[in-house]
Amino acid sequence: MTILDKRTELTTxxxxxxxxxxDLYARGWMPGTSGNLSVRIPVGxxxxxxxxxxxxxxxxxxxxxxxxxxxxxxxxxxxGSLKASAETSIxxxxxxxxxxxxxxxxxxxxATVMACRTGESDRTTSLRLERFELLKxxxxxxxxxxxxxxxxxxxxxxxxxxxxxxxxxxxPDAAPGLLIxxxxxxxxxxxxxxxxxxxxxxxxxxxxxxxxxxxS
Length: 216
Ligand SMILES: CSCCC(=O)C(=O)COP(=O)(O)O
Ligand SMILES: [Zn+2]
Fold this sequence. Notes:
Elements: H1 3-26, E1 36-41, E2 48-52, E3 66-70, H2 88-97, E4 102-106, H3 109-118, E5 125-130, E6 145-151, H4 157-170, E7 177-180, E8 184-189, H5 192-210
Parallel strand pairs: 6-7
Antiparallel strand pairs: 1-2, 1-4, 2-3, 4-8, 5-6, 7-8
Helix pairs in contact: 2-4, 3-5
The structure holds the ligand CSCCC(=O)C(=O)COP(=O)(O)O and zinc ion.
């Protein structure tokens, strides 16, 4: 791959991240600079990821608001004025443990309600999902039921990432999503479109749960 090819790859990936971010912001899923997105890109032997910069208004990102990091460690590859997302280490933990090529983290309302209701401050818990037809949108071997983990919202993000790493390493068939207590949801897929699609399924299922679809 030539330097020009690499630059084109990075620019295209950055533009795509910005476009998906603006869309998710417009849905109200990334309020107040929350949320972050990344893609794993085929430069640097497939170990490079491009991730949104920290603290930006996610509704007005452009391809210039991205930071190149090592996909599996989160280390910044080209130091510059932009700071990589504060939650880069969680993206890196997903890339290290799965085949994912895109990761999306948002503070969408219904998933966040379920993260508040099911999370605890002293242990990882889980949210059981079953019966919903929308489970078929998650790419599971058995779409009749699954459990998604709810991690503690450690102030040190690396501690969340360590728990994600440990969980995904011991659950190779894990669903492509996780909750962080009192915080939000992270999903992943083979590309941004699939990660967003799965996010839509999770958010819709959480909405149904909040509305009491399975009560009584
Ligand atoms: C105001 S949101 C607090 C940080 C957060 O949870 C988030 O998703 C955004 O962090 P980033 O560093 O990626 O902007
Ligand atoms: Zn967040």
